[in-house]
Amino acid sequence: MNRTILRRRIVDILALVLATAATLFGLVWLVWILFTTFVQGAKAVSPALFTEMTPPPGSAGGLLNAFYGSAMMMLLAVAVGTPVGIAAGTYLAEHGRHSKLAATVRFINDILLSAPSIVIGLFVYEIAVRTAGHFSGYAGALALAIILLPIVVRTSEESLRLVPNQMREAAFALGLPRWKLTIQLIYKAAMTGLVTGTLLAVARISGETAPLLFTALNNQFWNANLARPMANIPVILYKYAMSPYDNWIELAWAGALILTLFVLLLNIGVRLLTHKVLKR
Amino acid sequence: MSDLTDVTNGTAHATASSRGPHFDRKASVLKSGRWGDKLFEYGTAGAAWLVLLVLGGITFSMAWGGRLAFQTFGPGFLTSSQWNAVTGDFGALVPIYGTIVSSAIALAIAVPVSIGIALFLTDIAPRWMRAPVGIAIELLAAIPSIIYGMWGLFVLAPFLAQHVEPWVNDHLGQWPVLGPLFRGPPIGIGLLPAGVVLGIMVIPFIAAVARDVFNAVPAGIREAAVSLGATRWELLSRVTLPYTRSAIIGAIFLGLGRALGETMAVTFVIGNAHDLTSSLLMPGNSIAAAIANEFTEADTDLYRSSLIALAFLLFVVTFIILTIAKLMLLRIERISGKTD
């Protein structure tokens, strides 16, 4: 009897130790990756990073054109993807909540959420690059918008559903048409959630490399024309990190640091934002 | 008197005149409301349809783009290990093998670790620790895959080459049947390093879902077990895991879906060699890495079509895996009230 209790206790302690070790194991990688990025990146960050163009191998330069290209394509992707995503999320949460279409869209949307982004890149290549005959910033933005769409659909549906039904009922009782109710009341009530979803989606697409490889391609020079191939941070990081040139690798680490900071700050900021709302 | 009539007349007149337009306005509001509602419903439904259209479009365009490869090589495309751009002979076996093997290694690492993390976050950690540790694990999922790739190439690969792979060679390499898998030059680039990076990447996805799933176990069941004297390990192994089995399998499939399609991190460390080797330490290739590496260099229609055919296979397989994951998770979502 005593032996069974002892055995059970030992097994229990062993399980606790292993679970704690597993958590430490997970956290070690986070710390290690962030540490590497910060140390390697800090060595290479300089004002020139934001004022000069991507250099040829062996000479100094910055990543200005890549930052600009990434920013432009992300802005366009958000401008196209967010309204569509919020509209679809609105259908799932409001008019179509219990419809068959909504159930199907919910299911497919969840799958798109985890779909391989490289396939989305090839898809946009097929529909926008091959037909146009050349790579372009527009194609890159379209690929990013397709990746952003399911994230916004999901988060906007969830935040619209959090709006209490009494609000809808009160508005109906006053004779307010549903579209006015949605736009003037529900969207306002769910604003934090909608913003949060969009910010999370931006964080996600800012580091997406695979879908840009065959759409925006790359550009060594300054280019503000979205109709032409455009430099962007992820593809530059890939190209430079894989290159044999020391100054390119250094620049890649500097870019990696900026990108990581951007993503981490967005993610932490979003969590603070939602936390504040939940508390209120 | 006359003033009074005037006033009453006036008010009567005023009410009459205000009633008319008032009713008109109300009618027009109702009408515009009805029209607006229809318009709004169709508009939002159209956006919802677009989600389906994207999925259909991807499937169709990959099948269409890959048709030349499928027509040329037939079913042999799946079983041929040839990949020769000069002779125009392409087979998918090497990338398929690499994708499966690297994902299997990833799951072997990530599944036990993720379940441990989920257990830690639900039952072991003191309450004040749960939110910060949970967020830290979630941040691991937020780091862009290109950063994982760079870290894998510059930090993990040398580390594995110097400290881990020699040991793997000396010890696991001596095993009777599985030995050849672990014998090879310790170069830090290959299927094993790719699997390790993938494993780290999918830990947060599986752990986050597993934690939510554990939290969805009804308190009554847990309390009943504890009141009967179950230890925490017994609570997990005899109550929580059996209760959530299908959902945990769903979480694992979700991680598998991620691992199969992950591109950049793998491209950096897998070595991009179209050789079929028995050793996990040798460079190999995965479907996503092959596409990322070679697509812009593909100079013939057949070459390009073969890569798109690979993408089609990848997309269909991940679609099936993710569908299974979703179905497995449906029950627990219903319990925790995520969907109604």
Give a verbal description of the structure.
With 280 residues, chain A is an all-alpha fold. Chain A is built from twelve helices and no strands. By secondary structure, chain B is an all-alpha fold. Chain B is 77% helix and 1% strand. Chain B contains twelve helices and two strands; from the N terminus they run H-H-H-E-E-H-H-H-H-H-H-H-H-H. Chain B has helices at residues 2-65, 67-73, 76-79, 93-124, 127-142, 145-170, 191-215, 219-227, 232-261, 264-269, 287-294, 301-335; strands spanning 83-84, 89-90. In chain B, strand 1 and strand 2 form a beta hairpin. In chain B, helix 4 (93-124) packs parallel to helix 7 (191-215) and helix 9 (232-261) packs antiparallel against helix 12 (301-335). The termini of chain B are far apart. Mean pLDDT of chain B is 86; it is low at 1-23.
List the keywords.
heterodimer; A: 280 residues; mainly alpha; 12 helices; 0% strand; B: 340 residues; two-stranded antiparallel ribbon; 2 strands; 77% helix; disordered N terminus
